[in-house]
Amino acid sequence: MLIRIYKILIFVLCIVSSMLILLGLYQTQASYGQLDKLLVGFSRRRTFITGNGIKEHKINVTDNDKNNTQRNNQTTRKTSSIFLDYQQVLKSGNFSMNQSVNISEVRPDKCDACFPQSSYIYKNDNLCSTNNSTTQVKLLIIILTAISETHNRTTVRKTWTSISNKNTRELRYVFVLGKHAKDPTFNMRALEEAKIYGDIIIKDFMDVYNNLTLKTMSGLKWASDFCSNAKYVMKTDTDVYVNTPRLLQLIDSFKIENEIIGRCILHPTPMRNETSKYYISPVQYPHLTYPLYCIGGPGYVTTMKVVKGIVSVSPNIPFFFIEDVYVGLCNEALGYKVRSVKEFQKNKVKRTVCWLKRTIACHPLSPREIIKTWNTRC
Ligand SMILES: *[C@@H]1O[C@H](CO)[C@@H](O)[C@H](O)[C@H]1NC(C)=O
Ligand SMILES: *[C@@H]1O[C@H](CO)[C@@H](O)[C@H](O)[C@H]1NC(C)=O
Ligand SMILES: *[C@@H]1O[C@H](CO)[C@@H](O)[C@H](O)[C@H]1NC(C)=O
Ligand SMILES: *[C@@H]1O[C@H](CO)[C@@H](O)[C@H](O)[C@H]1NC(C)=O
Ligand SMILES: *[C@@H]1O[C@H](CO)[C@@H](O)[C@H](O)[C@H]1NC(C)=O
Ligand SMILES: *[C@@H]1O[C@H](CO)[C@@H](O)[C@H](O)[C@H]1NC(C)=O
Ligand SMILES: *[C@@H]1O[C@H](CO)[C@@H](O)[C@H](O)[C@H]1NC(C)=O
Ligand SMILES: *[C@@H]1O[C@H](CO)[C@@H](O)[C@H](O)[C@H]1NC(C)=O
Ligand SMILES: *[C@@H]1O[C@H](CO)[C@@H](O)[C@H](O)[C@H]1NC(C)=O
Ligand SMILES: *[C@@H]1O[C@H](CO)[C@@H](O)[C@H](O)[C@H]1NC(C)=O
Ligand SMILES: *[C@@H]1O[C@H](CO)[C@@H](O)[C@H](O)[C@H]1NC(C)=O
């Protein structure tokens, strides 16, 4: 329930921020902003990409940088991009320049194995096994769900994941859970549920909104460790209707290569309105723009190769609590593209059941709407 509310709020944030961009409210420093965007892209792409995803990238904000005005000096730019970008953020966001910020606390672009790792409570490492059958795993769907949402998982089991025939077909699916933050009886129940249905993994982190990045990355890491025989991987949520038959039919025709497809944000910017509830401070994120990313509800699809890349760079990409942006940050470090595909929808307005059935993924839907959509013939 909470997760759903937060998700709606996050979408409102996305819409509001895109509207603000359209209105040009954050582009008062257009020329500087432009320069700085290029700068960030340049430094990230040139210094981050290597075979295994990461190369040494000097992020060191020295006191000298603070006084540096030689913005056209390539050497300086490369090593102090965060600081320069940070100043642009302060300017373009019309923050009080008076705010005192300890520059060493600004989120760096890279770190040394700083991303939090958590151990398994329930590993379920056999889920993608094909035993002796000839059925290969074409698509693994990782579904984010709050530990308390048993009813919602039941709905998803009865509807769009049912064609997996209890995880024995070319479609496999897995729910990712953490630990209940307050009530341990939820953990016992989740463990029982995991044993009964065999479609759950549980990891040792608090199952709360601010840990969704841990949840997403846990799912992707599990996929790369225990389901690497899957050709494609989708990440979605329990309040999504995924038209799995159609997706399986169309997935090859999308010709997904080194990229992520879904509903992707093309000009993503952090909310810089200090009075907003969704305000992201320059300390939390010092750049003018987010990397391109796709939103996790309705969901996005990529290849196992990209998933493995994201998992392998993630230890060195510092935690960021907006999970879709975090995946975008990892993807940017790899230099892969994102592509918006119109069948991935978020549309609350003209949502007739038959319209829903023509899309591949739509969001947000209640359990009742999911069942109705699944059962209707069009
Ligand atoms: C940053 O630069 C200072 C001075 O050159 C150096 O002593 C320090 O080790 C550097 N830190 C990092 C993380 O590179
Ligand atoms: C930065 O510039 C200010 C004012 O010009 C000066 O007082 C300060 O010492 C300089 N800091 C460094 C580290 O050079
Ligand atoms: C850029 O900065 C470096 C180090 O501060 C300096 O040696 C070099 O001359 C500068 N280049 C230009 C074109 O200003
Ligand atoms: C910044 O905000 C203040 C008040 O919040 C306003 O008076 C000022 O005009 C703004 N400056 C710019 C450049 O938008
Ligand atoms: C400027 O900074 C000082 C010291 O941190 C603080 O007391 C003051 O309220 C700030 N002024 C404004 C307008 O933010
Ligand atoms: C800035 O933050 C670092 C790390 O948190 C701390 O060691 C340092 O003392 C802080 N500096 C100031 C001036 O607060
Ligand atoms: C797969 O193994 C099961 C027993 O483990 C056996 O009954 C079945 O015939 C085997 N299928 C094939 C295609 O070998
Ligand atoms: C593979 O074998 C294991 C153990 O015999 C069984 O639990 C699992 O359901 C089988 N998986 C498939 C896809 O047949
Ligand atoms: C998860 O979230 C909680 C509450 O916000 C926080 O205390 C905790 O450190 C986070 N991380 C893990 C691994 O649980
Ligand atoms: C889970 O199901 C409940 C009860 O139907 C619903 O109110 C809630 O919104 C659902 N949560 C999500 C994330 O869909
Ligand atoms: C910032 O948000 C407040 C309310 O949260 C709103 O009234 C104000 O107009 C916003 N400012 C800008 C520049 O969008």
Automatic annotation (TrEMBL):
Single GO cellular component term: Golgi membrane
Keyword line: Glycoprotein, Glycosyltransferase, Golgi apparatus, Membrane, Signal-anchor, Transferase, Transmembrane, Transmembrane helix
Q: Where is the signal peptide?
A: none
Name the enzyme's class: transferase
> What's the short name of a Pfam family annotated to this entry?
Galactosyl_T
Question: Which species expresses this protein natively?
Answer: Owenia fusiformis
Q: How does it sit in the membrane?
A: Single-pass type II membrane protein
Source organism, top-level taxon: Eukaryota
Q: Where in the cell is it found?
A: Golgi apparatus membrane
Q: Which family does it belong to?
A: Belongs to the glycosyltransferase 31 family.
Matching entries from InterPro entries are given as: Glyco_trans_31 (IPR002659)
Enzyme Commission number(s) of this protein = 2.4.1.-
Protein name as catalogued: Hexosyltransferase
A Gene Ontology BP annotation from the UniProt entry: protein O-linked glycosylation
Keyword check for Glycosyltransferase: yes
GO terms for molecular function, please? Answer: hexosyltransferase activity
Q: Does the keyword Membrane apply?
A: yes
Q: Which residues cross the membrane?
A: 5-26
Name where it mostly resides.
Golgi
